[in-house]
Amino acid sequence: MNKSFIAGIGMYVPANVVTNNDLLKYMDTSDEWIQERTGIKERRYADRTKETTTTMGVEAAKIAIERAGITPQDIDFIVFATLSPDYYFPGCGVLLQRALKMKEIGALDVRNQCSGFVYALTVADQFIKTGMYKNILVVGAEKHSFGLDFSTRGRNVSVIFGDGAGAVVLQPTDDATRGILSNHLHSDGESAEILAMYNPGTHANHWMEEKYADFDDAEIGQMFFSHTMIDNAQVFPNMDGPAVFKKAVVKFPEVIMEALEANDLKTSDLNLLIPHQANLRIAQFVQQKLKLTDDQVYNNIQQYGNTTAASVPIALCEAWEKGKIKKGDLVCLAAFGSGFTWGSTLLRW
Ligand code: UT7
Question: Is 344 within 8 Å of 334 (Cβ atoms)?
Fold first, then answer.
């Protein structure tokens, strides 16, 4: 069986920097609150009309492909992770295939939110291992700024998120000293509604406490998407922050240890942990729990906020560009979020 390795990596963030103070125009918040509770100083917002989740993914992909020393025509499969797709359907994978004038290759969209990139990378790793594909493009991208409630009502969610994209090219290697060592994926749907965007959707309140009585066909469209939903702010992400926080600080260390133990390795062997950038306090808690030094953990939420599926590849790319990852280094990618879903990938760079 082949092992896979990251042959090229790229990232793209929009030029538009939005500071915490900039958000005061829309809502009752403060730079002090945001920094103290999340660590975030600023984030990037896409150009409203010129940039989409896909176009940002395309920019990151171009860099990853060039660094892998190949062309878009060499890519033989696409895995695109996002929770903020350009269209409800089709997915961003096909839009990227079109934008980069790729061959008529397979394109798969992954909808696993914060753990989306780790899930996408794991899928790609399996295709390389079986020998089915040789050059897989894995993208994580988000345009959160289009789907947030910028009033004070939505401040617990909107101040956290930012836009951006990261991408890698995965290739097979017969070099035993490098590549992906293992992946570990989990889910627990018990708390699915704790961090979710319900509408538009086909749920018809099935999972909610308040069930709808039977309705006639004319009302179906109204239940998918309606003015009432907009008026009641039911078209924005919903999050019980403290509940997510409590679960995250348990599952992050668990899934990192699972990866290390599966490979007979210890926390002291780890050169760099790239945690999903959900909240600096969560990352610091994980670091403390695992007794990792500052040099063993990479965080950049301060500059970009939480970019969900893009956060792990953006942090990985930036860490590599800054020379913090060298050939042979043991790197752990770990993520936790909506679903709940969580996972880790352990690799030798
Ligand atoms: O990647 C996706 C996964 N998501 C996460 O991992 C998020 C995990 N959770 C968190 O990061 C934190 O829970 C938050 C940053 C979302 C919130 O921080 P917190 O320390 O848990 O605050 P809280 O929700 O308990 O709210 C505390 C207070 C409330 O006011 P009262 O009720 O104490 O008067 C909120 O209304 O802070 C208020 N608040 C704000 N104040 C100023 C909430 N959002 C804001 C805000 N600015 N933006």
Answer: yes
- Take atom 4 of ligand 1 and give the residue whose Cα is closest: 278
Residue pLDDT, tens place only, 233-261? 889 999 999 999 999 999 999 999 999 99
Do 153 and 227 sit in the same domain of this protein?
A: no
Which atom of ligand 1 lies closest to the CA of 276? 1
Specify if 128 maps to a domain.
yes
Please identify, by atom number, the ligand 1 atom nearest to the C-alpha of residue 38.
Answer: 15
Give the separation between CA 147 and CA 159, rounded to whole angstroms.
Answer: 12
- pLDDT score for 213: 74
169 and 223 assigned to the same domain: no
**Cα distance between residue 11 and residue 308, in whole Å:** 14
Q: Would 249 be classed as within a structural domain?
A: no
Residue nearest to atom 10 of ligand 1 (CA): 241
Question: Residue 105: which domain range?
Answer: 3-173
Shared domain check, 227 and 114: no
Say if residue 16 is in the same domain as residue 129. Answer: yes
Nearest CA to ligand 1 atom 14: 241
What is the Å distance from ligand 1's center to 242 Cα?
Answer: 7
Residues with active-site annotation:
114, 276, 306
Answering whether pTM is above 0.85, one says yes
